[in-house]
């Protein structure tokens, strides 16, 4: 009699939440440019929801702006790009190859509210489609349920 095969264990990279140590194993970014603290939700090849805790200790607040600290919009876009990279990496973790992707294009970026120290920036990325070796992502950032930024990002596989 054949024994039933036990279900395969989940790939460690695909279980949520994904903490910063596991994020650092997936992304090449390091302080002060690692802008994702935790992955909260993940749907392979579809979407990812992540978190960035915004602290007054961030080095960019020293000059942006003294006496009125505001997170630069380009860093919000970078955080969304990193979240997009995590979506690709976590999805690929369920396959044999794990390519690196680079941000190559930003379209329709809009900033609707300032992000300040103490905010929890929620990063939501959705893979719209893969075109050859490029991924097109619809991205949204929010604080306390209110959208603060959105953009469409195109990321290309290295090599």
Q: Give the proportion of residues in helices.
A: 10-25%
Tell me the distance between the termini: 49 Å
Quickly count the helices: 2
Write down the overall mean pLDDT: 90
- What name goes with the CATH superfamily? Hotdog Thioesterase
The dominant shape is: globular
Q: Got a strand count?
A: 6
The CATH architecture term is Roll
Rg: 17 Å
* Main sheet specs: 6 strands, antiparallel
Strand content: 35-45%
- Reported by name, the CATH topology is Thiol Ester Dehydrase, Chain A
The low-confidence parts are: 1-13
Structural domain tally: 1
Q: By helix and strand content, what is the structural category?
A: alpha+beta
Strand order of the largest sheet: 1-2-4-5-6-3
The H-and-E topology, N to C, reads as HEEHEEEE
The CATH class, by name, is Alpha Beta
What is the element layout, followed by pairings?
Blueprint: H1 20-26, E1 38-43, E2 47-53, H2 73-92, E3 101-111, E4 120-131, E5 134-143, E6 146-157
Antiparallel strand pairs: 1-2, 2-4, 3-6, 4-5, 5-6
What does this structure look like?
The chain is an alpha+beta fold and 159 residues long. The protein has helices at residues 20-26, 73-92, and strands at 38-43, 47-53, 101-111, 120-131, 134-143, 146-157. It has one domain (12-157): Thiol Ester Dehydrase, Chain A (Roll). Helices cover 17% and strands 36% of the residues. The protein has a six-stranded antiparallel beta sheet, covered by helices on one side. Strand 4 (120-131) and strand 5 (134-143) form a beta hairpin. The N and C termini lie far apart (49 Å). Residues 1-13 have low confidence and may be disordered.
